[in-house]
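Problem: given the chain below (773 residues), write out its structure.
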Amino acid sequence: MRRFIIYCVLFVTIQGVFAQAFNINGVLKTKDKEPVEFADIVLQTVDSVFVNGTSSGLDGHFTLSKVMPGNYRLMISCIGYLTRRISLEGMTGHIDLDEILMDEESLALAGVTVNATAMTNTIDKKLVYPTERQVTASTNGINLLQQLMLPGLLVNAMFNEVSLPGGGELQFRINGVKVEREDVLALQPAKIIRIEYHDNPGLKYGNAEVVIDYIVRRPESGGSVGVELNDGITTLGWGNNSLNARINHKHSEFSLNYNINHRHFNDMWRNNMETFTFADGSTLQRKEEGEPGEVKENWQNLNSAYNYQDSARMFNATLRGLADNQPHYDYNGWLSNMADPNDKLRIFDASSLTILRPVLDLYYQQNMKRDQTLVLNIVGTYIYTDNTRIYQESRDGVMLTNVNNITTGKKYSLIGEGIYEKKLGTNRLSTGLRHTQAYSDNTYRDVHNYATKMDQGETFFYTELKGKLEKLAYTVGAGVTRSYFEQEGVGNDYVYYTFRPRVLLQYNLPTNSSLRLKAEINNATPSLSNLSAVDQTVDSLQIQRGNPYLKPYLRYATELTYEIQKGIFYGNILAGYQYQPNAIMDEKYWEDDKIVQTWNNQKDWQLVRNRITLRVGPVKDMVQFSVTGGVNHYISNGKSYRHTYTNWYTQMGLSVTYNNLMANFGMNTNWDSFYGETMKGGDKLHYTSLGYKLKDMSFFLGMLNPFVDTYKLRTEENRSEYASFYKTNYINQISRLLIFGYTYNFSFGRKFKTEEKRLHNADEDSGIMKSGK
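Solution.
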């Protein structure tokens, strides 16, 4: 009887257990009813003990099975969205939560550890959240980009440099404040919450092709100090060193960044083949064979800033200073007449340059009721330039040609801008007004003395609307530009008005991919250096001449981009076309017995480009690999010439991290540009490094170009029918350049969320015309 009762009790208990196990179902959606993929769903007890977990599928659905009755808390998290917490009290049966709306994260992910590179695509930018591995393997904000391997960037972690292929404008920002590269070098990776990678920046960013905005945490007390030393071992003539400090007190932050860099090589030379075709059809071919020369440069940056912010407003004042001294850029060699081996000249071509540039940047932001923001920004810049060039040709100690160009320039500029933004439901409207005024006063001393005084201004008013219709996101905007120029004593004044529309469309596909189309019209104004009414002697046969009658022109551009991301795999395919009628490009012609090099508004310039990027990783949270390949096809139509040029290029990066050990390899072939009649070759380099991180310190040993004997700095080609050339520059000491690096960062203080400064303006064009071969 007792055994029978025990069996009955066990049977009832087992039946009860199976009867009471239940499932929790739900589907995650955005407020626009799009599924949220790969979100983490964790079921916890009320005292935070883990019970069960899963991830949402491609359609946003999830299921937690075999859940026993009880009191629970459901935690739903996904990169780019606010974490949802759902209380499940007294659950006794199956639960269908139906649609759960996920709100987009607006600023921070403080305290969340990301284990796989998370990147959320929006119509105009990518929200990139570094992994713990990537943060550990980085020492500053620049080499963190090397770890992230974002498409369309050229990152040289050895030199702490980042640029765009083709030399487009790249803007850096920190919490929305536009900053310089030196400020990014001062960032401690552990303080970076995310990076907003604007690969299609709006009208308010001016002519920037890419904007990189670091969203960081900021102490409300205490501060941070950091030092970074990178110096050559095989040659002492290379070094990049920096010191930074930040102090915080309540709503205020004081910061100071100092950078000092030097280059000194004595094994630089160039080889050059020139062909001159005279009016009677005869030709002269000259070959320059270089011998070792000296290059020396020292430049320093000092940036100091004060920032005040509370919940309603922010004020930022920054004082920047640049001092760049290049006492030597010297070429030596022999110039031979290819038709007569005995006709050989000794040449010496030396340049020196000094640049001083102080900048004052004042910024104010007011956050108002009903999702409104007002931003005001004023930037004043002074640029002093002193440039000297000596060119000599001699035979048997007898001077035949002696050129001495001395240029002194003073440029003053003021940039003022105001932006108003208003959120309209799920849309955002922004409108702005920006004015740039520049004045230059330059003197040129050569065979003749010249003085130029130029006044140039540009006013830009725009309106832009960003919104979404189901799976189609859009940004539409338009602006009007007024361009003005005057040169004293020349009578070449102009006033131009330009209409600048812009459309950006992105359609989100169901396979975690998207298709994006961009079309825009920009205006381009002549540089003050090209507008200078000045002649400068180049050598015994050539002079360089500015053209004060250049006019602004339009630039039409369209791009189609496809992106896909699945787990550790990412792909990006881009096709683009640019058309620039009346583009300002170079030309040459005979005048008396001299070749004149100048610029003019030519017929048109076109570019057809394609690029594909593939990235894998992190694999096992250790290895990440990226490769990019592309082709550029240039079509240059001048008034008296037509040229085409095709350039294939490749970029590759590899990052390996194990515990505190870090290894990197990077390489890129040359991205060449062709404009007018001139091809300018890009850098072709590779590097490898091995590092170790110990708490707040890190050490690394790296080598630049370990697999080449002689480093080809750049190649340049001109296809003029009157005076063509093919020139190659070399610096031998950059081959197998061994570099040792040391970084020490420490910080103290509490953290709080910071407001975002929305813009930053700068003037870096000195406005002087420089001559040279």
